[in-house]
Structure prediction request, 895 residues.
Amino acid sequence: MFFKLDSFALAGIDAIKVSVEVHISNGLPSFTIVGLPDKAVSESRQRVRAAIINSGFKFPMKRIIINLSPADIRKEGAFYDLPIALSILAVRGQISSKLFSECCFVGELSLDGKINPVKGIISMVERAVTTGKNFFIVPQKIAHQASLIKNINIVPGDNLNGIVKIFCNCGDLEKYVYKDTENKILSKDNYYDLDLKDVKGQMKAKRALEIAVSGMHNFMMIGPPGAGKTMLAQRAITIMPQLSISECIEVTKIYSLYKKYSGELIQKRPFRSPHHTISRVGLTGGGKPPKPGEISLSHRGVLFLDEFSHFPKNLVEDLRQPLENKKVVIARNNISYCFPCSFMLIVATNPCHCGYFGDEKKKCVCSLREVRKFWKNLSGPIVDRIDMRVKISRLKKCDFIKIGQGESSSEIKKRVKRCIEIQQRRFEGKKFKYNSEASPDVINSWIRDNKEIRNILSKISDNYNLTARGMASILKVARTIADLDEREAIRTQHVLEALQYRAGYDFGNLNCDQN
Amino acid sequence: MTYINEISKKILYLLSEYKIKPSALVDIFKKNNFNINKTLDFFNNNKICKLKLNLNFTESGKEETFGNYFKELLNFILKNNISVLNISDRKYPNILKQIYFPPPILFFKGEKITKTKFNIAVVGTRKCTSYGIGAAEYISRELSRIGITVVSGMALGIDSYAQRAALKESGGSIGVLGCGIDIVYPPENRHLYRDIIENGSLVSEFFPGTPPLKSNFPSRNRIISGLCSGVVVIEAARRSGAIITSEMALKQNREVFAVPGSIFNSKASGCHWLINSGAKLVEGIDDILEEFSWYFKEYSKDGGKEKTNTCIHKNNDMDRDDIGGSYRKVYEFIGFKPRSLEEIVKFTGFEVKEVLSILAYLELKKLIEEGGSNMYKKVF
Prediction:
């Protein structure tokens, strides 16, 4: 006797369809699970047997073989308890339904037959939609998460008995479908405790941050300790527009693999600031089974590397590819895991070891050689990939006294949102969404018919020593500034302003105004 | 390419093999009326002298086989394109011969040293401010433009800024080293080492391979002032190499000029002390040229020509004319003291983004520059 139900396995943040096949034959009673099960899957035999008996059904005293197909992918976790139990009941005809072929099942059983939540439900439901299923039976507690995905009916189940009852009332599955409470979830106030208003002074840095966030440009701050670098970085997410539902889902999918995940839908943009002692796996992802690293955990949010100069060089170099591709691929024996990592990189560093190089008041105690060495240690290729670099200076006395002078985050957020909308309209149908991701041919199209810009660019390239990438990033930033200005074409003043955000120390011509 | 004559070789031989003190050599050389053979005879015949000199001046204590060291040195000089001038040479700068102890031998690269007619030294601190850099570049550029060669010590800071600026004009520059001519010190200046050979010279009295010892520098300073008719001091602390140079200059009967600095800048105190003790205060190159009216007739006071020091200000006025409206307002607010962005925004009442693009434009025009972080100031 044979019966089959559909379930899912997790591979990274993606799900793979898994068929739970059961075969019952005569012989000495046994219960075997094949198809590369891990410990948790193998142990589901005990849970399933107890749950079936405790729910008042009969456990068949036969040779039972469960196959999880495809057989060559390792199955991990306790997703299969519910489909295994149901298939055992169904194969003996204890329950029967035509609807089984239209459903997918996922759930962990406790010994009394209760269905416990599992992780990664969003990925699985999403996958189920693409495989053309109509119903997805999920544990009650996570039904609200599963219902975020459209085009599929979510049927919550509290215990095994309940599910069996649903299928016995055959033909009327619609009745049990989870009602949409999605709006309730998303209407929760998306409130941050922080506000850009709290940062005093720092006009240039604030303006730069607004531009950087609008175009998702990577951002570098150079300044003495206590100037407000961390404060500014933390407030970057407060001026980013609210996550859309699909973005929330993307982020939640990643976080659902993360240890500290609470089970809620994530609506705040993530802000991750790993310490510089972080391991390679911790930053880019990996482990067994592969988990997302900090770069993926900051997807759609901000990855802030404070004390950037202290990060080991190899770690920083690892960021290069994810920064370009917006995803990180972790290749394993027979499967490769792909985690998205479209984040905004913010780095902060002191200008030298003592931190006061170039400071107005406090003397820097480093020798020029030390300062130069300090800058040499920062990875050139990464710094070159950072579109916007701004020097942050310490506050002056008059800045302390002013309170609440600046704009609040919500005001800036409105402008940012408008700017992002303009970009999305422009890049409709293209692979990228933001100015910072624009491809060279798109950048060329901005300046092709713009003589004014070509003039100023040639003047700039005469005066500054810029790489091709440097030139492109000036243009990208200028484009964002023009978008903030709501201008169709880039104008001279936009390019000039973009030029302001390329701070650095030119050591061929070093200027040390510090006595 | 290498310029070295027989006399130079003999002097090198004496200095390297006999370890004769250069000053002793110069004395004997002068007494023998710059006849090298007589000088050689003197040292060869004077056994006691030779012994004494040997005892005194074998620094390394190494047992060198006779003649080998000299051969090595000669090979090295030829291989590295190092030229050698000796004091009896016609190409040896005349002005240097006048000092108390001229170096008997000069290693050099680049032809400038053999051709210059009129030199001015520009010296100062290694840790200079942007004001000092501006002054050094301005004075050197203007001097070089009228054909005066700027001599300096190839150090970081004022020295190298002055030399870089001078190299761009016709006058060129001479760098006097405190180490062997083959040693690049400080290493940051390696590009300057390469460039100066084109339109200038590198000069050293020390044998190739001599490390930049602290004790070498005062004696280098005497050559800097010795090569020049005047010494301009820009940003020097009270006790510094530049002050030593100016003292040497006084002993050598050269003019001393000082550029005033800020009273808050400890690195300007040396200049102020010099001015107090009678050095000429420099506001522009006319103040320098005035003292050499015997040489630069067109700049003499009696010529009735007005001082053109004001050209600094005039230049800026011209530039100001082609910037208008808001640019001018920002530019005029940024004075000699660096201004922060916040101050500019507050004063002008413009939006931050507007001010930023104006500042970028002015920077592009080289009218202002960023001094310190997020502080803007005028370029002079």
User: Anything to note?
Assistant: Chain A touches chain B at residues 201, 203-204, 206-207, 222-223, 351, 358-360, 368-369, 372, 391-393, 396, 398-399, 459-460, 463, 481, 492-494, 496-497, 499-500, 503, 507-508, 511-515 (CB under 8 Å). Confidence is low (pLDDT under 50) at residues 507-515 of chain A. The first helix of chain A runs from residue 39 to 42.
